[in-house]
Design a protein that fits this description.
74% helix, globular, mainly alpha, 179 residues, 9 helices
């Protein structure tokens, strides 16, 4: 799949900047297609991104952001399917789990994504109806985000945790929404 897009983008012979252009373009395409509910083409772009992310050691933090974007797009596809009353696609769940595993490996080098690993696992568990497990992952992700002063990730975790609560804490929702 990567060969398919090598003829596009800035001139070059596989340089780092060319690779970044390709993976950034595919990540953007993946996100846009996901938002447009163009699942097959979003997954095609997601697969290209994952192939590139896994092809070698990351050259910078942006690679982990691209991987994180794929996890988000795949989770969005799973959530959309569930909202439509469809059964979870086992292959999609496996691809999500794999991408989260890659994200976890990269989080050792790029600490700002540590909370996203558990946040992603929490979303996956929630979509599988495992609410107690989801709450544990989200609580741990929120604690990691607070320790690292990652306010946006902390707010996301808070909003998700409160959305799973039978009695949401309005003050916590307001605090998170303010971020």
């Amino acid at each position: 799949q990567t060969e398919r897009i090598k003829s596009h983008g800035p001139a070059g012979n596989g340089s780092c900047s060319r690779s970044i252009w390709i993976v950034r373009s595919e990540t953007c395409a993946c996100s846009a297609r996901s938002a447009a509910i163009a699942k097959p083409t979003a997954e095609t772009s997601a697969a290209v991104v994952m192939e590139m992310v896994e092809s070698g050691p990351p050259s910078g933090f942006h690679w982990v952001e691209f991987c994180s974007g794929v996890v988000e797009v795949r989770l969005a596809a799973l959530m959309a399917a569930r909202a439509a009353g469809e059964r979870a696609d086992r292959e999609l769940v496996a691809r999500i789990e794999h991408a989260v595993g890659v994200l976890k490996e990269l989080s050792g080098q790029f600490l700002h994504v540590v909370p996203r690993v558990d946040l992603s696992l929490g979303l996956l568990a929630a979509n599988q109806g495992q609410i107690a497990r989801a709450r544990r992952f989200l609580a741990r992700a929120g604690a990691d985000a607070r320790r690292a002063h990652l306010d946006f990730d902390d707010a996301r975790c808070t909003l998700l945790l409160e959305s799973l609560s039978k009695t949401p804490d309005v003050s916590e929702l307001n605090r998170a929404a303010a971020v």
